[in-house]
Amino acid sequence: MSDSDNKPTRTRKPLSLKGSQPGEVKQTFSHGRTNKVAVEVKRRRKLVKPGEEPAATPAPEAEVAPAPAPAPEPAPTPAPAAKKKPAASDETPQERVARLQREAEEERLRLAEEARKRDDQKAVKAAKDEKQRAEDNKKAAEEAEKQAAEDAKKQAKAETQAQDAAADASADASAAGEADGDASAAGRPAARKFSPVARPEIKRPAKKKEEKPARGGATTGADKRRSGKLTVNKALNEDEGRRARSLAALKRAREKERRLQGGGSNKPREKQVRDVVVPEAITVGELAKRMGEKGADLVKELFNLDMMVTVNQTIDQDTAELLVEQFGHNITRVSEADVDIAVEEDVDPAETLKPRPPVVTIMGHVDHGKTSLLDALRGTKVTKGEAGGITQHIGSYQVKTKGGDTVTFLDTPGHAAFTEMRQRGANVTDIVVLVVAADDGIMPQTIEAINHTKAAGVPMIVAINKIDKPEANPDNVRNRLLEHEVIVEKMSGDVQDVEVSATEGTGLDELLEKIALQAELLELKARPDRDAEATVIEAQLDKGRGPVATVLVTRGTLKRGDTFVVGTESGRVRAVVNDAGKQIKEAGPSMPVEVLGLGGVPSAGDVLTVVENEARAREVAQYRQEKATEKRTALAPTSFDTMFNQANVIEWPCVVKADVQGSVEAIVNALHNLSNDDIKVRVLHAGVGAITESDVTLAAASGAPIIGFGVRPNPKARDLVKRDGVRMMYYDVIYHLTDDVTKEMIGELGPLKVENVVGRAQVKEVFKSGKKDKAAGLLVEEGVIRKGLHARLTRDDVIVSATTIASLRRFKDDVDEVRAGLECGVVLADTNDIKAGDQLEVFEVNEEERTL
């Protein structure tokens, strides 16, 4: 019992106390807290006097002393516990547990506060140390530079002294043999005299090298580890290698010091003000790119302006200007002309032009032998491949003459539907060869070709074909040409003419000579060493090669890999194919080639222009697409009258797919020409290539037929055609197509109903007839009134009702008709709105066969 009496009063151990002691129980509380309580705690509380508790409190303090916190600070902590201890005898176990928990929490908070203070002190001290090290580094760098300069001076001085010593030694060597020994002995001190100068030079950089790593402490070990390694610098010149490394270290030290002083990344970057080019319409994302800002910031700013837009939406120029000014940039407005490519303004200097082959277009009426004449010149049989023996497309070929000259020929269709094709041919050509059949003479498309040629302002050569036929009369052709102001040389004019026969080959050489002569007079030249420009003659969607355009290069040289824009499409030249079907690397002026690599099928007649990069090509193409969309929407009906009139017109919808763009253009124009006030053709979609599933779906939804010109549906589309029951109309010759569509439209309208007025009468009086109906007493003024005919009642020349004559009486007798000058009474069906003075017009309706 004596040992237990001498034990100090049991108090709560500090949280830092480690290990468990005998007679203790470990208590576990919520949130993971624990406490150790002695089992004999009640017995000790009875035996120990309250006055002894303060003396016992230092015992735990001795155990807490090794804690990292300073010793004086924890000392006051037990004192409050000591004051509360006397009241512990009155505590219940629950109160004691609560008190112990509270004291443990206070102790934990105190220790956390002390740890935070220590961390703050360390951070302040580290910052001071870092600043001090930076200053030391700067001073060390300055001292190193000074020391290097002093070392260089000392080395120069030592070398001078060594030279003097060597001179003295050589003078003494001429003395006696003893003097030789003395000279060698004198030589040693000279070496010793030189070596003390050299040694510090080696050691001092080493000291400097050792001082620098001492800044971080960690680099010292690394230098020691690397000291044994042999490097190239060390092998060649150890001192120079060390000096180079020390300069790099100094540079890093300067950068670090600059950062610490706030001259580095801590300094806010200045906002870069940009000159932003803004077109008339631009997307929010593109504007953000040009401004160098985040797209989300622009969208947020627009939301603040009550504009709910996304990054991909287009805004106008005024809104873009507001955004640019809001973000502190400068705006540069550009007009439409700045975005698009203006070909007319770009003129090549005269000294850069070189001769080029002539472009000759063969024009004339259908079946007058244009393609046959070209076949005879080329030695091929193109006509066999054309449906119906007539040309449906513009063909382009190059022919070499006997003299070695090259001539480019364009063959245009002669059918009336291909007017625009002929016009394109006349616009891109240098010389027009007008083919006129000697047996047929001047025909409608011949006149049209003459007009196109005059409009284009190009010279003409008249080729009178089919002179081998018995009924041929070339002089009649020459006389008929006078009616259209075409005076040939034989009639004392300036237009060359030649009589040819495509089948017999007669007059072909003479035709080529006249073409060469005309080309020589024109002095055709173009600049080949520039970016190419070309005109699209034909375009189509090839199944294996994608969009393909047949173009005629007007100037420059088109090379494989060029980036270009053509109409609303852009692309990169993937391949260039000549008229013989061979791939070539480049095509010069006046050369017809097929171009692969387009983004889509362009329209025939579009100009292909090579640009500097893909971004510029996309910009121009996108701008042209927007303008085309605006043009289409501008054609929509804008007034109620227009919409009402269109609502009364019967529509004949259809989907058009053709093999080439020129055919699509010709078919759509021909269909629109068939429209009149009663019925019009509505082309739902017109495109190039095979008939696809989307075409069938569109036709099925609209109940429209699909017109395929030289194309067929793919397998999936065929299945849809069977499933949906879509009507297909296939054609290879355009006038067959127009004839069938005309019949379809006439059938849609039904027979033509024609009104024929039979008689007119005036209402004199109105009587009651039965309970509801009214009878009108009429005076027949003209013609005859018949029972059962259609009638129109007018009042002040305004139609009141359209009805029929239900009953006709003269006096009390029912009659079938009443002639002019007589009076009668009538009852009109479905109307009682009759007044004296009204006019009654009686007419009959006849059905006639309709024509468009």
From TrEMBL:
Residues 67-79 have a biased composition (Pro residues). InterPro entries: EF-G-like_DII (IPR053905), IF2_assoc_dom_bac (IPR013575), IF2_II (IPR044145), IF2_N (IPR006847), P-loop_NTPase (IPR027417), Small_GTP-bd (IPR005225), T_Tr_GTP-bd_dom (IPR000795), TF_IF2_bacterial-like (IPR000178). Residues 93-157, 200-214 have a biased composition (Basic and acidic residues). The gene is infB. Residues 1-272 are annotated as: Disordered. Belongs to the TRAFAC class translation factor GTPase superfamily. Classic translation factor GTPase family. IF-2 subfamily. GO terms for molecular function: GTP binding; GTPase activity; translation initiation factor activity. It comes from Paraurantiacibacter namhicola. This is Translation initiation factor IF-2. The lineage of its organism: Bacteria, Pseudomonadati, Pseudomonadota, Alphaproteobacteria, Sphingomonadales. Transmembrane segments: none annotated. One of the essential components for the initiation of protein synthesis. Protects formylmethionyl-tRNA from spontaneous hydrolysis and promotes its binding to the 30S ribosomal subunits. Also involved in the hydrolysis of GTP during the formation of the 70S ribosomal complex. It is found in: Cytoplasm. Residues 53-66, 158-187 have a biased composition (Low complexity). Keywords: Cytoplasm, GTP-binding, Initiation factor, Nucleotide-binding, Protein biosynthesis. GO terms for cellular component: cytosol.
